[in-house]
Structure formats: C-alpha cells, structure tokens
Amino acid sequence: MELTLETGRPSDTTGRLEKEIRVYDFLDSLNIPYQRVDHEALMTIEACKDVDKILDAVICKNLFLCNRQETNFYLLLLPGDKKFKTKEISSQLGVARLSFGNETYMEKYLDITPGSVSVLGLMNDKEHHVQLLIDEDLLKEPYIGCHPCINTSSLKIDMKDMMEKIIPAMEHEPIFVKLGQEE
C-alpha cells in the first residue's frame, strides 16, 4: 500500500468511525493545522516505523495505566523508542504500583481501543478520569505523531499546538515526568 502524506481531514469520510471524525472536528474547531497518513491497522510502535518516516515526526508511545485498585488512571506519553519501567513512573507519582489499564476503562473513558491509544482520546474524557503524564523528552520534539483515536490513520501535529492549544482545550493538565534516569 502506497502511503501518502495528506493535509487536514479526509475529503471523503465514508467508512470512517464517528470517533475519528470527532477528532478532525475538534482539531478544525481549534484551527490546528495537521498532516495525515492513512494506512492499514498498526497495533505496535514497531509497525509505525514506515509511517514515522513519512510523517517526519516522533511517533509517541501512549500507555494507558492504572493503580492496583483500578481507581486512578493515567495516559503516559513518551517517545516511541524509549523504554518504560513501571517502578520509575510509580516512584515519581508516589503511587504504589502501576500496571497497564484494562481496555474496558480505556473504552469507557477515552473511547479508544488497544492499538489506537492516543492523547487525542482525552477529548472524550469530559469527567477527567484520566491523568495525563508526559515524558519531558517528548517536549524536545518539534512535532508529535499520534492516532486520531483509530489506528488506521496517523497525524503529525506541531508540538507547540499540542501543548498550548490542544491539551488546554481538552482540559487535562499534564504532569511532567522524567523516564530513563535509571539506565
């Protein structure tokens, strides 16, 4: 399949899910410019490598996490090539033990499924069940690559727009963390 970099939302939305269209509506309402690549379903960071090259943006690893009691939920954004250690993030947050969150909560709070996890899912979390965590190294990147809540498209968004317009509009104040300190 030929991967093509497009600007903005698809002109034909036939066959696209409502949650994907809501992302385009949201970005357009904020006047956020973005580029898009449509592709086959990508379930892992490794599968995103070709799309990464076309977007020329760091593909962001998005991890949906929770505490042992499943009462606190987190969305951790970190560079795709960075290793994640639960102990490291748990100690920075002062949380006993974090693990990967159940997909039931992921769908309930963010309206996304495994393989499609994205910071843009926070636009669906109106009741603020999920705390946004961002690895500081991600902020060094000029652009961020993320899914529009579905893993058959990837978006390239200016990091400045993400931090100054999109995240504030979703009303999720991030906590910044430093991962990879224990290497």
Automatic annotation (TrEMBL):
In this chain the YbaK/aminoacyl-tRNA synthetase-associated domain maps to 39-163
Pfam families recorded for this chain? tRNA_edit
Cross-referenced InterPro entries, in alphabetical order?
ProX/PRXD1, YbaK/aa-tRNA-synt-asso_dom_sf, YbaK/aa-tRNA-synth-assoc-dom
Q: Which domain of life does this protein belong to?
A: Bacteria
User: Any keyword Ligase?
Assistant: yes
Give the UniProt keywords, A-Z: Aminoacyl-tRNA synthetase, Ligase
The record's comment on protein family reads: Belongs to the PRORSD1 family.
By what name is this protein known? Prolyl-tRNA synthetase associated domain-containing protein
Species of the source: Blautia segnis
